[in-house]
Design goal:
The complex is a heterodimer. By secondary structure, chain A is mainly α. Helices cover 81% and strands 0% of the residues of chain A. The longest helix of chain A is centred in the middle third of the chain and has 51 residues. The chains are: A mainly alpha, B mainly alpha.
Chain lengths: 313, 204
């Protein structure tokens, strides 16, 4: 029995290609001439054909299962799309946050004297530009790099604490300015019971408290219009201090409604004073809320993109 | 919808379109893997890996024969599995064990779909087993060419584009693979069809 593998490689290749009809016409003629003269070569060709035929006759096997991809298997690509979107959102929110902080700090309209005078706000103003400098490279890295998300998250974290601190500062400031604005009204309301209860002359006032004269002098501008009004109606023209007029007015029973009126006016005087100051403090919290919102959004986006990355992993 | 359109949709991320292509090609892909690896489970895993890889890399498919493109991924998945086996020679020896006379359950499953009568079934089972056995003994690169050209019946050009080698290499490897297979099958003479056997006897 001939062993096919013992055939010269050239003959074997020629026979194999001849069996498949892959020889050039000249090669084919040469092989056919040799086949006519060599029965052993003919047997080898038959064996090649039989072997090839056996392989072709192998039954096609039905796969044990379908190989369709489930969305979970293929989902990598979708999450891969969601990930950069989340990264971009993180970068955008961070950018918007710092822009808002910048507006907050540098816009002159948004910064009242009280805010500017506060020491913590100066610290904020120092911190904010540094953060603004750091921002561009961070936002760029967030779009490009994978690890940048954590970087953005890290910068977002101190930013939030910074906002919280500044909000706390603002609250302290407004708490500090509010009593100052309310002072005239407070003193007025404190004085009226004092005066009305004792019904006494000016010496009683000095007994009530030492700080009384000074605040009165300070709040004089607020108090004087009301007293002008009451003096006009009650028609008692004493040459002494304005407080005396109020004291005298409260002493007379007919003047009681007038005093109430004066108190109302004094009370309404305080709100008008507040109203002239409030537009700036009320714009500030709105910016602060925006800052908090943006910082929170940046954090949420950063966390989501981290989650997306882990899911993708 | 034709395959070109389905592939275009699949490239845009349409998983359903891709899965229709999978259903169209999965039997072919699985059978190539089965004959190269000789094991149903390993072949199924390699086929699944190949389709997942095909989906992920679908953008790199730029027209031409999708079948050849896919089969190249399938053969690569088979090579991965073969490399894994070589790193664990103990299991590989068992899987490629030469004389397993008792029919493996998967062999029965293969033939459950054939229309042969029961008396020919065991005969065919043994023959299939013998052929697979001889295929398993071939060097990997010879086996892949033999499976593509003879078992699947692809022409030299298609085999060449699947394995990424020139036509001359395909010709040479196929000839050697056939010679080795013939010599191997000769030892299973009693299992071979009459024509094959008679010729073998006549030549001896």
């Amino acid at each position: 029995m001939t062993r096919l593998s013992r055939l010269p490689p050239r003959d074997l290749e020629a026979l194999s290609a001849y069996a498949d009809g892959r020889l050039s016409p000249s090669e084919r003629q040469r092989v056919e001439a040799r086949l006519r003269d060599d029965p052993a070569l003919r047997r080898s060709l038959d064996e090649i054909r039989a072997t090839s035929g056996l392989l072709r006759a192998l039954p096609s096997v039905r796969p044990p299962r379908n190989f369709v991809l489930t969305p979970e298997m293929a989902g990598v690509r979708r999450r891969w799309l969601g990930y950069p979107v989340l990264q971009l959102a993180t970068a955008m929110a961070t950018l918007a946050f710092f822009v808002t902080v910048g507006l907050d700090v540098f816009a002159p309209a948004a910064a009242p004297a009280a805010f500017r005078a506060a020491a913590p706000s100066e610290e904020m103003a120092l911190e904010a530009p540094a953060a603004m400098d750091a921002l561009p490279q961070e936002s760029g890295a967030a779009v490009l790099g994978v690890g940048a998300v954590s970087a953005v998250a890290e910068t977002a974290m101190p930013a939030v604490t910074a906002t919280e601190v500044s909000v706390a500062d603002a609250m302290q400031e407004s708490a500090a300015t509010a009593p100052a604005l309310l002072q005239p009204g407070e003193y007025a309301s404190r004085e009226v019971p004092n005066v009305g209860g004792e019904g006494g002359p000016p010496p009683a006032l000095t007994e009530a408290g030492t700080p009384a004269p000074n605040p009165l002098a300070a709040g004089g501008s607020a108090a004087t219009p009301t007293c002008e009004a009451c003096s006009g109606e009650v028609e008692i023209p004493p040459p002494s201090a304005p407080v005396d007029k109020v004291a005298f007015a409260s002493a007379t029973p007919e003047a009681v409604p007038v005093t109430q009126e004066a108190m109302l006016q004094a009370a309404s005087g305080a709100p008008t004073d507040l109203a002239t100051e409030t537009p700036q403090p009320s714009r500030l919290p709105r910016l602060r809320w925006l800052e908090i919102g943006l910082a929170a959004a940046a954090l949420i986006f950063a966390a989501s993109s981290q989650w997306a990355r882990r899911k993708m992993g | 919808m034709d395959e070109v359109e389905l592939l275009r949709l699949a490239q845009q991320g349409d998983l359903e379109a891709f899965n229709r292509v999978v259903l169209e090609h999965q039997t072919r892909a699985f059978n190539v893997a089965l004959r190269v690896l000789g094991d149903v489970e390993a072949a199924a895993d390699a086929t699944q890996d190949a389709f997942l890889s095909a989906y992920r890399n679908l953008r790199s498919y730029r027209g031409g024969s999708f079948r050849a493109w896919l089969l190249r991924i399938v053969t690569n998945a088979c090579y991965d599995e073969l490399r894994r086996r070589k790193r664990r020679p103990a299991t590989s020896l068992e899987e490629l064990g030469p004389e397993t006379e008792d029919g493996e359950p998967e062999v029965e499953a293969w033939l459950a779909s054939t229309a042969d009568g029961p008396e020919r079934l065991s005969e065919r089972t043994e023959l299939v087993h013998a052929i697979q056995n001889c295929l398993d003994r071939l060097p990997d690169e010879f086996r892949i060419v033999a499976v593509l050209a003879d078992v699947q019946g692809y022409n030299y050009d298609e085999v060449s584009s699947v394995i990424g080698k020139p036509l001359g290499t395909v010709k040479s490897r196929l000839a050697r693979a056939r010679a080795r297979l013939r010599d191997c099958l000769q030892r299973h003479g009693e299992l071979l069809p009459a024509a094959f056997r008679l010729h073998g006897e006549a030549s001896s």
